[in-house]
Amino acid sequence: MANSGSFDSPPSLRNVPKYHKMLQLLSMMHIIDSRCAARISGSRLEEVFLTADRRSDGESGLRVRDLLREVGFGLEAAGGVRGLDAPIKGIHLSELGDPTPWMLPHSILLTTGLRLQEHPESGARLLRTLSDASMAALVVALGHTIAVPPQCMVEEADRLGFPLLLAPFDLPFQRIVAFVYDARRSDDTYEEMYRLKRTISIQDHLVDLLTRDHGLERFLEAVSDLLKATVLLFDASGDLASVTGPTVIVNAETADAYFRGYLEVKRRPERSPNFLVGGYATAYREVLVSDRLAQVLLAVRNGDDPLPELGNVTLFYAQKLLSLHKLGEQDLMLLREDLRSAFLDDLLNGAATEAEFTLRMRRFGLDPESEWRLAICAIRDRHSAPQAKQGSEEEGALGGSLRAVVDAFMRARQLTCLTTTQKDFIAVLMVPLEEDPERVFELSAELCQTAAETMEVAVDVGVSAAGRGALRVGRGFAQAQECLHVARSCGSVAGAAVFENLVPQRRLVANQSVESLQAVIAQTLGQLLLYDAAHRTRLLATIRAYIDSGCHVGNTARVLYIHRNTLRQRIDRAEQLTGAKLDNSNDVVDLVLGFRALDHLQYHGCVELLPDRGDSPPVGALRTRSALRLAQDPHQLIPSWLKDSVPQLE
Fold first, then answer.
1. Which of 273, 354, 443, 506 is the least crowded, having the fewest Cβ atoms under 10 Å away?
2. What is d(CA 439, CA 283) in angstroms, rounded to the nearest whole number?
């Protein structure tokens, strides 16, 4: 007798201590149904194995007609009596249209005929399939779905000489399974034990390849060698991740054909793990992680014969081990992300020294000598977000979604970064593509747009100036916070602000209360607002366009599509109303602050505007059309604070 690691001869029963484990493996190998396996006691199985070990009369004598002779079964032969002398080598329970890929030759199939009631012709087709696969007999339990077998099924059984047996309703399949395995002779038992030992050895070998860090390619090479097949591994989207084995030549075209074949089989009502592509037998297994498809494993062999039983077991193990491998990769990735997040937390809290900064930056693939920028990403109004609900758990999920969007955005642009989730924002330490603040602003604005499209919420981003080292992270954090505040307060259309681009006017407006801004508007622009509302004029829009164009008469006239004389008349009238002189720099600064304050209040809903009427001229280079819209309709609502603050004109 060979030792326990040999495949040369069947192993001794004395080397297998747990019979329950054997039974589970038998079930997994589809020799018997798992439900029946659970019903057979350990002591009963032990008796079968030990009795078989003492027998030495060779070939099994169990025949199909022995089932008919068993007292208490009550089985009847409905057709195919010419095949009653067929030997029985195994037993299988299934309701599939074609269970033969999981059956041993010369096995009997037990079924309740689940499909026969709606599709009587499927019974005849099943008989042909079993007969072609050299099976022993079909046993149909009556009373579950059908009372009698379809006539076409009986006729097909007689034509094929394939036994069709009928089991009464009160006969449990467990009794038939137990009877078959009790009657198996020593050769059959040793064969099963040999197969079990080989299966366990295959499993141990594949597990060793993954756990000892031999790599995924080495693992797939071992699977290919065991199956004598070419192994292809696809990701969930159909991209070929790996191919191993000499059986077939695989290129982009053939790989696509194999994946399309898999998709076609999946769409069929009767899915089978085997299909043909270009004359090659192909078996597939789906690698699932958390019930989601992660990969598709294909085994391609010459000819049209499906994988043998041991090959199916090997492919099954490979599928499960790949699922564990993917799950382990995800856990490792999450661990790395947690470590990177903890590092950034330490930087924000000032808990990291320069030496620690240098060491940990290199550990995470970042150059400690390179410049970085700190960005803060925050949802503009968390309570209005579609996903937002009351409670910290839902808010945390919303923050996690934003972080996932940010991480995916950075990976897609090959930006190395550290991210961490805080209570109200996501902090990102990133290496910018360029030092140019305008490029950084464009990138931040693109991030805002991507987050808005993905999460259906408005997102603002504040970005610090470039910095180096650990000690400047705190200063960068303060800069990013100020930029975020300015982006929110001043109504940035892009939702982004970069520290180098902050102008003093915006900083002044962003830090003022609503009442202070109302006072600024009333003092600088109040008379223009009231005059436009009363006389249907556009003095406010005209003055804003004039200032935005650098107080240039010709450029402003072209932007507003008016004559220069008309422009000069409007400027004179505006100067009379406000008391400001547009050739005086101090007066111009006051008016600009008024416009900034108006933008701020409009952004925060403190000024109610009606939609455009559709007959306004193009505004060209105007930075905002809020003032123009405000001045178009005299019947719009003027805030009460403005009416109370500005003397009414006659």
1. 354
2. 50
Residue 414, C-beta contacts closer than 8 angstroms, at least 6 positions apart? none
Give residue 312's identity as a one-letter amino acid code.
N
- Give the number of other CB atoms < 10 A from CB of residue 463: 31
Distance, CA of 600 to CA of 647 (rounded, Å): 23
CA 438 from centre of chain: 33
Same domain, 484 and 378: yes
User: Using CA of residue 604, residue 606, residue 607, residue 612, what is the dihedral sign?
Assistant: positive
Per DSSP (E only), the strands in 436-519 are: 459-463, 496-498
Range of the domain at 354: 349-500
Domain limit, last residue, from 131, 157, 192: 192
DSSP 87: B
Nearby residues of 544 by Cβ (< 8 Å), 6 or more positions away: 595, 622, 624, 627, 628
CATH number at residue 631: 1.10.10
What's the CATH code of the domain at 479? 3.30.70.270
- Structure confidence by residue, pLDDT tens digits, 382-397: 554 444 444 444 555 6
In a domain, 343, yes or no: no
Residue 206 belongs to some domain of the structure: no
Q: Are residues 310 and 260 in the same domain?
A: yes
Which tens digit of pLDDT belongs to each residue from 442-457?
888 888 888 888 888 8
Q: How many domains does the chain have?
A: 4
Total residue length of the chain: 650
| Structure tokens that stand for 455 in this block | 């999460």
DSSP characters over 637-650: PPPHHHHHHSPPP-
